[in-house]
Automatic annotation (TrEMBL):
Top-level lineage group: Bacteria
Domain HTH araC/xylS-type: 660-759
SMART domains in alphabetical order: HTH_ARAC
Transmembrane domains' residue ranges: 7-29
PROSITE patterns documented for this protein: HTH_ARAC_FAMILY_1, HTH_ARAC_FAMILY_2
Cited SUPFAM superfamilies: Homeodomain-like (SSF46689)
Protein name per its UniProtKB record: Helix-turn-helix domain-containing protein
Listed PANTHER family: ARAC-FAMILY TRANSCRIPTIONAL REGULATOR, HTH-TYPE TRANSCRIPTIONAL ACTIVATOR RHAS
Alphabetized UniProt keyword annotations: DNA-binding, Membrane, Transcription, Transcription regulation, Transmembrane, Transmembrane helix
Gene source species: Paenibacillus chondroitinus
Amino acid sequence: MKRSVFLFWLYSNLTILCIPIVITMLVLFQSQHLLNSEVIRSNKALLNQVKQSLDNQFKDIKRMGLQLSLDPKVIKYVNQTEFNSSQVKIDTLDLITSLRSYAASNGDINDLYVYMKKQHFGVTTSTMNQDDLLFQLLHEPNKGITFKKWSDSMEKIYFGNFLQLAEDDMVYMQSLPIQNADEAPATLVVMLNAERLKAAISNIQLAQAGIVLILDSGNKPMMIAGEPGHVSDLDLAQISSSAEGSFSQKWDKEEVTVSYVSSVENEWKYVSIVPTKIYAAKVSQLRSWIYAGLFLCIFVGGPMSIWLTSRHYMPIRRMVDLVSPKVKSNMQDSKDEFLLLQSFMSENAAFQDTANTTIRKQQDVLRSHFLARLLKGRVESGSALAQSMASFDLRFETNRFAVLLFHIGDYSALFNDNGSRDSESKLQYVYYIVTNITEELLGRKHTVFTTEVDGMIAFLVNIQHEDEAQAKQELIDAAQVAQEVIQGKFYIQLTIGISDIHPTLAGIPHGFDEALEALEYKFVIGPSQIIPFDRIKRPKNELYYPLDMERQLINHIRTGQYEEAMEAVSELIVTNVSDGTLSLQLGKLLMFELIGTILKAIEHLDQGPNELAVEKHALIKQLTQCESFAEIEDEIYKFLKTVCDYVDSKKKSHNTNLKDHVLSYIDEHLADMDLSLTSLSLKFEVNAPYLSRFIKEQSGETFIDYVNKQRVQLAKKLMMDTDDTITDITQKVGFSNSNTFIRVFKRYEGITPGQFRKGDQL
């Protein structure tokens, strides 16, 4: 048997063993890096401490030098020109006393003196000496400075500078007087105590581990604290102009770490040089411990991994020995016995899950089918019913039952139109939503069982308390909440029928019939309603539809009066439903009567054989698809609008023809003196008052005004085109005498006919 699982687990354990090894190596490298960084940071901190200490000391020396430069005795002494008088000797003694007091106030000073350039002598804290003797006493020639170099340095101009005249010979120099430094006759020289400064630096741990340098602005050493070694071998060029930094290099055949910080006070740099081996010893010790841990991991953890892998593999081998011969035969073609066992167990588990799911689905289907038969009263009674209920886990805590029927309406808004679901799956999804929400609401106070019956969802509710009125109200409230949630959030239209409460199992079918009857009443009151059976127990069985109202409706339709016709239909409907519950049969009868009246009115219209035929067929088609009284009412109003618009268009067409005939007749008979409204009404067989209103509506003028204006226009044309007399024209335009013609002409034209003819001739 192949041991692929054993090898896999062994490799896995060894891989896990490698994880701490890799982590340990990473920790080693990271620790070394962090330790180096921490040492460098510590060196910089100590170096900043050195810088701060020395900067404060040098600042005190500068302050003392400035005070001395401004001392009145010093200024008076350096500004005098005669040095042979007795007073000069007294002034010299005063100056020595002042210098001695200044030197005593600062322990970092060895001595100080004022050098007179032109006189070539200097006044110290104890005496006055010539320049050569002063040089011999205060500046040892063996330190590498000559008298010439010293003398030249005394002649230069200084503005408070620190200088290194020779090795370990650091001085502070200031030209006097300070107010006229460019032509200063004297130079103040303060000699620093280099040994004391070095001792102060050496007390800091950094100088004890290595050396500390003070470099001037040109990176030249001014002071060295610690074992100097061959400082000249250091590559100080790597020290940049930045404020601080660090780097490593070889010095005296060993690795050193060089750190530096800059002083803002005097543009110096403080440099520390520490051998790397001082702090690398800690890193080496850490590395040794880590290597020891790695050794233990490999040479102890490795054998432990092999032993534990072998121990863990034993259950797998026993499981393979216990499986059926069929599985063992399949092992011949398998490279991994664990995967084979896993596949075998997964297949068995999947088969078991499938079987359980199938059984559960079948149980649910059978249970739902049993509930449907129970609602319709098609189940056995007695012990057979009790056994069936026990097998389907139907337990009723009380003997009080009610039935709710949910009719699913439009739910297209719940789904988009991408076609990802078929109609069956959409409907099942809708059933799932309605069932879960309603069961949760009804189940808060009662026991609920759900099934599907004839495309509707039925809820058999086992009422838990005896107050019938309260129980009915709870059912109605739960139905209202369910309808609000389902229609408001899921856009599923619901109509709900609720039965009365029945006291025994035998009453369940009666409850179902009541809920179904209540649900059918949606035809009268419309969809998306909650209809308790109490609402339709005593329906109205009388239909109000008098003959005079039918005739009135027909007349409104024949005359095209849509508003009046719609008001008549609305009055009939309101009268029938306002004083009681209209039964389903009477509701349908009322609709059919209204439709019959409208079709009867159409038959009396003067229309061709094909006019309104399409509309009538469309009406009949729409009525067959209506599901409620309200939908039929809407279709009746739409058809009424179509018919009345048709009648109105016919009336408008007739009025247009009448207008053309009447006006043409008037224009052709203007010369007829007997032309009158009566003669026109007789001619066109129209009532004279109606004809008068008609001419006013069509022309905007009364009959008399229209006829007179047309006669005046004809008279003007005759006067311009002919030489007929006014009397002849009067007769040709239908006036009985000239006076009447002249009066009418002047009324409409503002002048007489004679004046018009004269004006036309001009």
